[in-house]
Amino acid sequence: xxxxxxxxxxxxxxxxxxxxxxxxxxxxxxxxxxxxxxxxxxxxxxxxxxxxxxxxxxxxxxxxxxxxxxxxxxxxxxxxxxxxxxxxxxxxxxxxxxxxxxxxxxxxxxxxxxxxxxxxxxxxxxxxxxxxxxxxxxxxxxxxxxxxxxxxxxxxxxxxxxxxxxxxxxxxxxxxxxxxxxxxxxxxxxxxxxxxxxxxxxxxxxxxxxxxxxxxxxxxxxxxxxxxxxxxxxxxxxxxxxxxxxxxxxxxxxxxxxxxxxxxxxxxxxxxxxxxxxxxxxxxxxxxxxxxxxxxxxxxxxxxxxxxxxxxxxxxxxxxxxxxxxxxxxxxxxxxxxxxxxxxxxxxxxxxxxxxxxxxxxxxxxxxxxxxxxxxxxxxxxxxxxxxxxxxxxxxxxxxxxxxxxxxxxxxxxxxxxxxxxxxxxxxxxxxxxxxxxx
Amino acid sequence: xxxxxxxxxxxxxxxxxxxxxxxxxxxxxxxxxxxxxxxxxxxxxxxxxxxxxxxxxxxxxxxxxxxxxxxxxxxxxxxxxxxxxxxxxxxxxxxxxxxxxxxxxxxxxxxxxxxxxxxxxxxxxxxxxxxxxxxxxxxxxxxxxxxxxxxxxxxxxxxxxxxxxxxxxxxxxxxxxxxxxxxxxxxxxxxxxxxxxxxxxxxxxxxxxxxxxxxxxxxxxxxxxxxxxxxxxxxxxxxxxxxxxxxxxxxxxxxxxxxxxxxxxxxxxxxxxxxxxxxxxxxxxxxxxxxxxxxxxxxxxxxxxxxxxxxxxxxxxxxxxxxxxxxxxxxxxxxxxxxxxxxxxxxxxxxxxxxxxxxxxxxxxxxxxxxxxxxxxxxxxxxxxxxxxxxxxxxxxxxxxxxxxxxxxxxxxxxxxxxxxxxxxxxxxxxxxxxxxxxxxxxxxxxxxxxxxxxxxxxxxxxxxxxxxxxxxxxxxxxxxxxxxxxxxxxxxxxxxxxxxxxxxxxxxxxxxxxxxxxxxxxxxxxxxxxxxxxxxxxxxxxxxxxxxxxxxxxxxxxxxxxxxxxxxxxxxxxxxxx
Lengths: 439, 579
Description:
The complex is a heterodimer of chains A (439) and B (579).
Chain A: H1 2-6, E1 11-23, E2 29-41, E3 45-49, H2 56-63, E4 71-76, E5 79-80, E6 88-91, H3 103-109, H4 118-131, H5 147-159, E7 165-169, H6 177-192, E8 200-205, H7 208-214, E9 217-222, E10 227-233, H8 245-269, H9 287-298, E11 305-307, H10 308-314, H11 319-331, E12 335-338, E13 341-344, H12 346-353, H13 356-370, H14 372-383, E14 388-390, H15 391-399, H16 404-421, E15 425-427, E16 432-434
Parallel strand pairs in A: 3-8, 3-9, 6-7, 7-8
Antiparallel strand pairs in A: 1-2, 1-4, 4-5, 9-10, 11-13, 12-13, 14-16, 15-16
Chain B: H1 3-10, H2 19-41, H3 61-92, H4 94-109, H5 112-126, H6 131-159, H7 163-171, H8 176-204, H9 207-211, E1 212-215, E2 218-221, H10 225-234, H11 238-267, H12 284-291, H13 293-311, H14 325-358, H15 364-400, H16 403-418, H17 425-435, H18 439-442, H19 445-449, H20 452-465, H21 468-476, H22 481-515, E3 517-520, E4 523-526, H23 530-540, H24 543-575
Antiparallel strand pairs in B: 1-2, 3-4
């Protein structure tokens, strides 16, 4: 920011060695955020970019004083954060509007704790509503508004308290593409013109382009546990143009970084990949999406190889979803991801051309060879005399290594894949895995 | 905050009174005058209320109806107060919840009349020589019929506050008080109002027993519909019983129209949904109030007052995490020891008091026979709920699939549920005597008379909510007869049926005390069961046996719910929920 660079910049937020861990039911703890350092200066927009499960929202909530860090220090304007602080306001992904309050009342809610005289509060609320372009809707209830207008109310409610720091938790991800873009542009205009009573913005997002469009600096998070793997300054003149080659190059390079470290990390954490490794977190990816992506990649115009950002756009998929499917393909050795590109392997190409029956066999082979958990389940079922084992047996095993929620997701995924491959069967009523074919 | 006053602000400039003001004024002033009159009567000396004072003339009924209604609303007020404090404490503190929720669970399964026997003497002692003591006892009895489900509903709401609203209210640093009035109460409002309506319906059932109190030697007859009915039964005056029924119907319709319909319409805006819902049903009272300009203006200061109170921070300083983890752990242990120690003391004292009361009076044989009687009542409840389901599930499905009919009939079913079926008991007695039937069998249907409607209107609700596309699919593949019932419709309404069945069976247990021992003049019909056991012990003022009976019934109800309804409910939630 031009405004910021000319004067001595003040530190708004400082985070040192922050760690967050949750106790596990089976004892021990689960680390979701590890050793995070960052500072946020006056006049900056900083983005926390990462995939789901990277702890970026957790970090935001620590800064908001909504949850307490397990270790490390977080300071706001030099004061330790020990609960929601005056001077920090938050915008929520789900808007978090009170359905029984009108737009005006929702905005005034932000002022309730500040003990402001009601006339003054009324005036400030009207100003904030005016600023976000909602004048005329003061007496409307949230359910009468579209998603974009609701989020404008969310912004007005945060701005009305005149915060020094605005925290935004994926504020545009619940909106459709067009609405989200309009809101981003409006917000950036207000920011550049200095019309918002705020000093800095912290934005959590999993959308790479959004981060590049809006932020002065991007902190890239890795998953499981979350930690900062790169700090990327965005030196592109505002207003930024998505088609600018410099913009494209930065987006591409971030794509690359977001896919690479995942592999490096996996390799380093699990040296014996084929032996054991049943505690690998599996994404919730349906066999339909797997086949769909393989087919799309094999066909024109990709012919087996694609650049990830345009592929995401073409398939109308979020980066997060595409990464999940892509990594599943990589895990099953149907594809390889490298330098922001995805390339089908020979097996992958063959899969694309086979009929459903052969596909199932190929999938089963890959599943048992490369997904240790699937092989493990099959082995257990083979060994048991009745060839049956309860769901809970595997869930408990996984919960030693991951949270209950992730264990469930992982097990659900492997069950779905196993059912598709007809490697094992599952009876939902009895929560029982077996080798029987369903009758 | 309220719909009414928001509109009032917009219309402030037009101050000329309208004809609607006249109507509204009459309503408001009339209600106030009635309340004041009724309250004065409640403070009369004790001697002025005896059975001799009750008149069976229909002319006396309006006053009786008023006093009964006031008692019910006093109890409703007390229930709200209880709900707001007890349920809030249980939801806010894990330690308090661990004690308060099981207690509430037990209280809910204790038969309503069980409370009456223990509290009458206590309340009489607080206000010696005045009617106030007896009034308090009666109000307390009604309170026990209303409070528990309201508290449970509020507790459930507090536990399911959407996470984002919780975070928003914390991040904007609302104090606990502001949060309570701006987030928690509004969010809980629709469910709470529904439960208030259920509570009012439920308490009619016990109006006779709570106004014509007779525990051992203590006999009090408070002027009210309940006492009127009691006297009519004693004098075998069937005409008077029907007069009382009429009065009751008028009262039910009046508070339904004047209070609950407007409340339900108003509570629409607290429904937690982000899409436009169905249009608010038209409510004539709201229309009158909206058109009455002077009333609107009068409401502005009221609204302002509420807003000021609800927005006041009233905070004892902000809770912070300043203490170190070790300090916190020690504080936690110390508070835990104090808290649980206190409860251990209370429990020990209770056990001691129980021992003193029961020792030497109750042998194991007595306990055994109480359990045997409990089994008999259990059999009745199971058979009756089963029979009622066989009848009302098909009927409910048939009605529910016809939207126009469902709207009208569901309302009627709700009124029927509010209707105190015990007032029809005399008719049943006359019938049983006339045909010389076995009371052990033929008194039983009285238990389910008032509660079967819960099954009906829940099934109607379920069938109305059944997705049209599934109906179309069933029709398209020509699924008919047995298959249609067992594969399409019954699984669809099952979750709703469970809710209705649970309520009906709970109500039937409670009703057994009234239904298993019925009198008509000097005639006494009795069915063997736990209900008549408690009723007889109460009439004799035999405290050890009342305690035993109440405890056994609480055990039965709790076990029945835990072992039968809860698993079914869990199954329905897991497998049959429409997403």
